[in-house]
């Protein structure tokens, strides 16, 4: 019986809790055989709509960083196979998420252009080797959520047994040793009846110490999962304010914030989870970044199974930094010319808030691409069990690191009618930059991502 059939069978019996059965050496032997080295099914779908795994994406000759990636993608001239809208949504409902269905039915004019599927989200050979070497050794701690052991950089649980393991595959997504947005936007669409958007401009650097060459564990670097630096450049009221965060494998996040008016750094102990970020009129909780960001400890994560879903993929348009921002955004949703959907197999996991914990969204569902372990789509539910937010990551190959990443994200609020276009370089003139192992940038150290350094580099 195939892995997908086993997962669905056990899920139907209600056995997909956080308790896991051991992964055997026989399971691990499948990696690189009928499974890819990181756990996806190599074969395509029976009807051919999902192809077999194709391997790592490569640009056309002549691409170097700073050139528009979309111009060097070999499938750049493809046209949509069909478009899903309110008139035909029921026809495709079995391959859509609940949030996608509600967007199509509720938001006037919303469409999803569907393109041919390509499976080119590979990983470097060293990451594949670490995945196989660590597949049996990886473990969740007794607290039920933190990553106790893993061989990194690699996919900790290529043959996942429960939802929290899939979450750690997502959190340990390989992005090189760092990703930088030298100039970027977050835009919140206007309130209904208004024409005034919230426009923030910023730069950002995320550092992954465990992604350096070799083999590393969650205990290295003081248990640091990633360092995160964020600096507002617009609007004037926020310009110069900055955040330095330290995310860990097994403890709470440290957050430091520089206030320009006070010319000092303050520690913000509650600037995580569903805390609203400064400057966004409560439209941006801290853990909504990249659909889900931060510790997974407030939720019980259930592995529902694997499905075929139309998800955002090959989002090269999202890195067209020479496109005008106004051309990308509509009043109620992102321009469909910017959005590309493909049929892919995804792992569905469901998070429900633990007893005694609190969160503004007591239930979340995430749909995680089997090839890249990137979250493609997520739905947030409110306290009444209704869909509140439908969220998307635009999964895109990033050639300098030999892996895929999110080129931008969109969070659609189905209650307020607003949406957030996030992490986008559209209109900036500068691309996202990914740093492979061996990069010599002096900022890529643990010491850079501290409150003391935030104070030293802040000058307003």
Automatic annotation (TrEMBL):
InterPro entries associated with the record: DUF1329
Signal sequence bounds: 1-19
Q: Whose protein is this, by species?
A: Trinickia violacea
Q: Pfam families of this UniProt entry?
A: DUF1329 (PF07044)
Keywords, alphabetical: Signal
Please state what the protein is called. DUF1329 domain-containing protein
- Taxonomically, the superkingdom here is Bacteria
């Amino acid at each position: 019986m195939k892995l997908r059939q086993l997962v669905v069978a056990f899920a139907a019996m209600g056995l997909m809790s956080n308790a896991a059965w051991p992964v055997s050496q026989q399971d691990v032997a499948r990696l690189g055989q009928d499974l890819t080295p990181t756990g996806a099914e190599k074969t395509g779908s029976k009807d051919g709509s999902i192809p077999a795994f194709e391997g790592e994406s490569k640009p056309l000759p002549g691409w170097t960083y700073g050139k528009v990636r979309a111009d060097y993608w070999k499938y750049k001239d493809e046209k949509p196979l069909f478009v899903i809208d309110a008139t035909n949504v029921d026809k495709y409902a079995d391959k859509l998420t609940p949030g996608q269905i509600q967007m199509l039915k509720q938001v006037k004019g919303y469409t999803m252009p569907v393109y041919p599927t390509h499976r080119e989200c590979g990983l470097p050979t060293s990451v594949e080797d670490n995945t196989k070497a660590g597949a049996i050794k990886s473990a969740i701690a007794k607290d039920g959520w933190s990553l106790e052991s893993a061989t990194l950089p690699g996919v900790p649980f290529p043959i996942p047994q429960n939802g929290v393991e899939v979450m750690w595959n997502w959190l340990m997504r390989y992005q090189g040793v760092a990703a930088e947005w030298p100039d970027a936007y977050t835009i919140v669409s206007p309130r209904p009846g208004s024409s005034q958007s919230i426009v923030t401009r910023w730069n950002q650097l995320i550092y992954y110490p465990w992604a350096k060459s070799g083999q590393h564990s969650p205990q290295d670097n003081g248990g640091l999962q990633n360092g995160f630096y964020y600096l507002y450049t617009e609007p004037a009221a926020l310009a110069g304010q900055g955040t330095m965060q330290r995310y860990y494998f097994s403890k709470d996040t440290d957050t430091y914030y520089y206030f320009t008016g006070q010319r000092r750094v303050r520690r913000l102990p509650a600037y995580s989870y569903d805390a609203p970020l400064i400057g966004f009129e409560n439209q941006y909780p801290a853990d909504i970044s990249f659909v889900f960001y931060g510790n997974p400890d407030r939720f019980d994560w259930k592995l529902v199974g694997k499905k075929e879903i139309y998800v955002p993929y090959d989002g090269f348009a999202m890195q067209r930094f020479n496109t005008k921002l106004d051309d990308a955004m509509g009043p109620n949703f992102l321009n469909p010319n910017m959005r590309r959907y493909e049929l892919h197999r995804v792992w569905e996991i469901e998070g429900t808030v633990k007893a005694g914990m609190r969160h503004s969204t007591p239930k979340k569902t995430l749909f995680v691409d089997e090839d890249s372990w990137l979250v493609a789509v997520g739905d947030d539910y409110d306290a009444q069990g209704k869909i509140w937010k439908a969220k998307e990551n635009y999964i895109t190959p990033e050639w300098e690191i030999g892996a895929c990443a999110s080129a931008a994200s969109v969070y659609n609020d189905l209650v307020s009618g607003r949406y957030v276009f996030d992490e986008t370089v559209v209109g900036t003139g500068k691309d996202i930059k990914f740093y492979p192992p061996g990069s010599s940038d002096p900022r890529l150290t643990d010491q850079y991502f501290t409150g003391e350094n935030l104070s030293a580099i802040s000058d307003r």
